[in-house]
Amino acid sequence: MISFSGVAVEKNGVGILRDIDLRITERRVGVIGRNGSGKSTFARLFNGIETPSRGKVEFEGAGTLKELRRHVGFVFQNPDNQIVYPLVSEDLEFGLKNLKLPKDEARRRIDEVLERFGLTHLRDRLTHQLSGGEKQMIALAGVLVMQPRMIVFDEPTTLLDLWNKRMLMKALNELEQSIVVVSHDLDLLQHFDRVLHFENGAIAGDGPPAQVIPLYIEKSQC
C-alpha cells in the first residue's frame, strides 16, 4: 500500500534516516527504537509532515502530497498539538471543511464517529476541559471523520493512564484502516502483523513481533 524507495532525511547536514527501502501492506505495523533512532521522523514521512531529502514515498492511489495527506491520517503523541478549536464539534468539522462536503454529510460523519466510540456526550464540550484520554480519542475522531485508508500514531499511549490506555488499545483493535504505531510500549505491539526496529537512522530489524521485539530488548540491555 505504501512504499519507501531509497529514502533518506537530512537536517542541517546531519543524517536522520538513511537507506530506507520497504513496502508496507500489513494492517497492523509497529515501529520501535531508542530515542533519536529516527522512528518518529520515519512516521512523519507517511503523510508528508516530513519529506525525504532523497528517495520517494509512494502511496497507492496518491499522486500528490495533498492526496497523500488525504489517504493517510496522523495522530500526534500530544493531542494538544492536534486539537485546534475550543469546541469539540468545531474541531471535528475543521478538516471536513477542506473536503467541501454538504453540511448533512459532515454532520453524519461526525455523529457516526462519536457514537462509535461512545463520545457523543463530548460533542459540545470545551476541548481544554477534556481529560487526557478524552483529548486523545477526540484527536483520533478528528482523523477518522476524514475517512483515511491508513492512520499513523506517534506514541499514542505515552500521556495516558492505564484505563485510558486500554480504551485506546480497544479502539485501535477495532479500526478497519491499516495502522502504523510508533511506541515504546512493547505490549501494545505484541499482536501486530509486523514490527520495524530502527537504530541509528536505519532499519535494524523487520519481521513479526515475536522475532523483532526480543532482539530489540536484548540489544537494549547491552
From TrEMBL:
One GO CC term on file: ATP-binding cassette (ABC) transporter complex
One Pfam assignment: ABC_tran
Entry-linked SMART domains: AAA
ATP-binding among keywords: yes
MF-aspect GO terms: ATP binding; ATP hydrolysis activity; ATPase-coupled transmembrane transporter activity
InterPro entries: AAA+_ATPase, ABC_transporter-like_ATP-bd, ABC_transporter-like_CS, ABC_transpr_CbiO/EcfA_su, ECF_ABC_transporter_ATP-bd, P-loop_NTPase
Alphabetic keyword roster: ATP-binding, Nucleotide-binding, Transport
Domain annotation ABC transporter: ranges: 2-219
The keyword Membrane is annotated on this UniProt entry: no
Family per record: Belongs to the ABC transporter superfamily.
Name of this chain's protein: ABC-type cobalt transport system, ATPase component
Organism, scientific name: Hoeflea phototrophica (strain DSM 17068 / NCIMB 14078 / DFL-43)
Phylogenetic classification of the source organism: Bacteria, Pseudomonadati, Pseudomonadota, Alphaproteobacteria, Hyphomicrobiales
